Amino acid sequence: MKKTSPILFIVSSPSGAGKTTLCRKLLAEFSDLRFSVSHTTRKPRAKEVDGRDYYFVSDAVFDQMIEDDLFIEWAVVHGNRYGTSSAEVRAAATEGRDIIFDVDFQGAQKIKEQYEGAISVFVLPPSIGELQRRLRMRGTESEESLDKRFRAALNEIAKHGLFDFLIVNDNLETAYDILRAILLAERARHIRVACLAEKMLDV
C-alpha cells in the first residue's frame, strides 16, 4: 500500500442522496481541503464548469489516460466513464492539504485498496421513497433513465459494508455536522499528531 501524508477523505452515495452538496459545504468551510476533480466522458450538465466540477474529456483522451496508467481508479457509471488521476493526490501532498473524493463505491474501494489510511463515508437517503422523489425533482431524466438510476442506487446501497462511516441525510445540516465531525476526528487521530507530542518531549 502507498502511504500518504494528506488525509484521503472519500465521500460516496447513490445518486440523489446528497453527497455533492455535503462535499461543497465541507470545501466552503475548510480552505485547507482540496477537491479531487475527476475526469469523465459524459457531457457537462447545466452550470457545471470544466476543471472545477469535472474534467470533461473525449473517449479517446480517456483511453489514452488508461493506457498511460494515469488513473488511481476508473469505472463505468450510468453508461459514462469516470476516473481519478494520481496527479490529484500528488497535488494535495505538494500543497500540504487534505483531499476529498466525490466518487461511487467502485472508486472508493479502489482508492482504499491503494492508499493506506484512506477514510470512506457513505451517505444514505432517509428512505427509498425519498430517494425516488429527489431523483424526480431534478427534472433532467427520462423515465427509463430514472429507473436505471434507481436500480443503480439499490446496488450502491447494498455495498455499504465497504465504508468506514454511514451518514443518513434526512436533514442536511445534521448530516453535514456529522461529516464535519468525522473529518476533524481524523485530523486528531494519534498517528497524525503524535510527531507534535514527540517534538515537545525533545527538550
Textual characterization of the structure:
The protein is an alpha/beta fold. Helix content is 46%, strand content 21%. It has 8 helices and 9 strands. It has helices at residues 19-29, 59-67, 86-95, 105-114, 128-137, 143-157, 172-187, 190-201, and strands at residues 8-12, 33-35, 38-40, 54-56, 71-77, 80-85, 98-102, 119-124, 165-168. The protein has a 5-stranded parallel beta sheet with strand order 2-7-1-8-9, with helices on both faces. The mean pLDDT is 90.
Topology diagram in text:
Elements: E1 8-12, H1 19-29, E2 33-35, E3 38-40, E4 54-56, H2 59-67, E5 71-77, E6 80-85, H3 86-95, E7 98-102, H4 105-114, E8 119-124, H5 128-137, H6 143-157, E9 165-168, H7 172-187, H8 190-201
Parallel strand pairs: 1-7, 1-8, 2-7, 3-4, 8-9
Antiparallel strand pairs: 3-6, 5-6
The share of residues in extended strands comes to: 15-25%
Supply the CATH class of the domain at 8-36 and 97-201. Alpha Beta
Largest sheet: 5 strands, parallel
Lateral arrangement of strands in the main beta sheet: 2-7-1-8-9
Principal-axes geometry comes out as globular
Compute the number of helices: 8
Describe what is shown at a glance.
This protein is α/β, with parallel strands linked by helices and 203 residues long. The protein is built from 8 helices and 9 strands. It has a 5-stranded parallel β-sheet with strand order 2-7-1-8-9, with helices on both faces. The protein has a 4-stranded mixed β-sheet with strand order 4-3-6-5.
